[in-house]
Amino acid sequence: MEDKSINAVTQDGQRCNPSALGVPKPLTSRYLPVPSLALRNESLRCWSNIPFITMPLSRTHGKSFAHRSELRHAKRIVVKLGSAVVTRGDECGLALGRLASIVEQVSMLQNQGREMMIVTSGAVAFGKQRLRHEILLSQSVRQALHSGQNQLKDMAIPVLEARACAAAGQSGLMALYEAMFTQYSICAAQILVTNLDFHDEQKRRNLNGTLHELLRMNIVPIINTNDAVVPPPEPNSDLQGVNVISVKDNDSLAARLAVEMKTDLLIVLSDVEGLFDSPPGSDDAKLIDIFYPGDQQSVTFGTKSRVGMGGMEAKVKAALWALQGGTSVVIANGTYPKISGHVITDIVEGKKVGTFFSEVKPAGPTVEQQGEMARAGGRALAALQPEQRAEIIYHLADLLTDQREEILSANKKDLEEAERRLALPLMKRLSLSTSKLNSLAIGLRQIAASSQESVGRVIRRTRIAKDLELEQVTVPIGVLLVIFESRPDCLPQVSALAIASGNGLLLKGGKEAAHSNQILHHLTQEALSIHGVKDAVQLVNTREEVEDLCHLDKLIDLIIPRGSSQLVRDIQKAAKGIPVMGHSEGICHVYVDTEASVEKVTRIVRDSKCEYPAACNALETLLIHRDLLRTPLFDQIIDMLRVEQVKIHAGPKFASYLTFSPSEVKSLRTEYGDLECCIEVVDSVQEAIDHIHKYGSSHTDVIITENEKTAEFFLQHVDSACVFWNASTRFSDGYRFGLGKGLSGIILCCLQLGI
């Protein structure tokens, strides 16, 4: 985290606010949110670089959360800080940078209206630092008096007893927490407990009442075992049930406290990323995203961390005990703030961080398992003969027409459910029809026919020496992740492309098209089954957020987002180590020149704007030469747009020519995606080109003219993917090019080249 007021560097190499070291910071304002006010507060606040929005939080404690996405509803949260998180690498002193980051996140959540509690280690390490300093100082004085200066380097530090270190460190640890929380106008209170405090009914009630009172007053309790007087753990009484747990370390303390206080979430921070299926660091170790009761037998535990009382096995036992008591648990890494600086807030937001403990096992495979299935299926697909891959695609095309009624019935459910939630352009993209399915089937057959040399085609052959030749051939990329919005027809398109190019495929569609996507995916797998490669195409139905999918760099080789420009930008930002094949917005222009044909103009403009206005290749801005204003041609264009019920927005120059103009355009870079367009006036073909370069998206741009010289000038100077002369923008389509339907046809070229 960056803060211009931070200029101290701690011994663990982290930056820390000087006030966190005991230097008070002047407070210009004080945030003491009252819960009843926080419920109505929707204002945005920000500390350091972590923004948040206060939100209403209410949940009746009972069962634990079933899915990560539900963690954002957690009201009462316990954060357990392991010894490896709180202490420095030399085990003497605290990791102040990490601690400052944790306090900032806890403060942020507290000021959202949540009830935060911290179970912390660190008193022994802090006390060890203080006692070592005192011993060294005392020894140095004695040896300087009796043995001479030269023997100072031979001084030995005696083994320090843990209880004494705890006694010496508890006050300093709490003072540090108080100084840090003060920076966020939050009060903290210390509570030291032992195992006896939970077994004595009166003490247990007193502890419960104290914690509830502190939370009521918006105070963050800092809880720790009283290591200065703690007795040895009771034998044979550890984790035997919801009512019995031996508090022998802070893992068991945090679990016991979470259940006693009916907390919604327990976050256990350690020095490993979470729970692995084998000891971390081993070659085959894989992070377990979700851990279910009963999975212990499939896990091999390693040694405990360099400091602390418990290891991962103790954490898992404590986590399962808390889960049984109705508290959700996440175990994550809290030792690398530069990498996981927002680990606590990320967990609460439902992001895939660490290992989430859940009692609800999903019906289908996890997305990680689907990724592995897609890779294996893709390799089997690539090994088929080209004719076999083409046969699969032909069969899928037949299924689209044969199963038309079932597809349209599922699509009708999606439309009915989305009617109140989606805008009209998105509803049009969501809608399927008989004509769409027929067109889709034709496009798939084109892909099948052109896919014979998609895999294994020799691009270049070079003779390096006698009897030694080097060949460059097309090969599959691997596993593709295609994310698409509101367009169920995208699923069979992209599936056919993946099949043709021998790639495994993960599909993530919008939830608004869930029913349509489900049946289309079922038909795709039915087609794949004729050659035993059903697993090559997987539909992700789990609750994984798109951002989480973009982090699976070990499973996914290429991400292709198909949707709005905002979706593409979000994917490009979220992708971690995975290339993204993004596309631009569809801000397409048609320029009407002074020498344009009247008949061609109305036909081209009508088709470009009105045939399918939600498409990315639809006309959005109509550029008209100034000399055409107040001419019969201009009147015919306007009359045609009115008949087609196209809403017109006037560009700045066009508006200046009119006494009563339509609504002036807010931006010349607008993709309407509906029966709307902008009209703007230009003085020449060069000005039209300049306008396109300034406000366009380099997608598709058109000139309408009978002057060949003017047309050639336009074609040569416009820098767009598709530039047409006397043709509709809708011609920019893979189906029209003979490559397959829509943008999919363009993607096919890239997949065939292996780029």
From TrEMBL:
Keyword terms, alphabetized: Amino-acid biosynthesis, ATP-binding, Kinase, Mitochondrion, Multifunctional enzyme, NADP, Nucleotide-binding, Oxidoreductase, Proline biosynthesis, Transferase
Main location class: mitochondrion
Membrane-spanning intervals of the chain: none
The UniProt record lists the keyword ATP-binding: yes
Ranges where the Aspartate/glutamate/uridylate kinase domain occurs: 75-333
Subcellular location: Mitochondrion matrix
Catalytic activity: L-glutamate + ATP = L-glutamyl 5-phosphate + ADP; L-glutamate 5-semialdehyde + phosphate + NADP(+) = L-glutamyl 5-phosphate + NADPH + H(+)
Molecular function in Gene Ontology: ATP binding; glutamate 5-kinase activity; glutamate-5-semialdehyde dehydrogenase activity
UniProt cross-references to Pfam families, sorted A to Z: AA_kinase, Aldedh
Domain Aldehyde dehydrogenase: 367-629
EC number(s) stated in the UniProt entry for this protein: 2.7.2.11, 1.2.1.41
Biological role stated in the UniProt entry: Bifunctional enzyme that converts glutamate to glutamate 5-semialdehyde, an intermediate in the biosynthesis of proline, ornithine and arginine.
HAMAP family for this protein: ProA, ProB
SUBUNIT field: Can form homodimers/multimers.
Name used for this protein in its record: Delta-1-pyrroline-5-carboxylate synthase
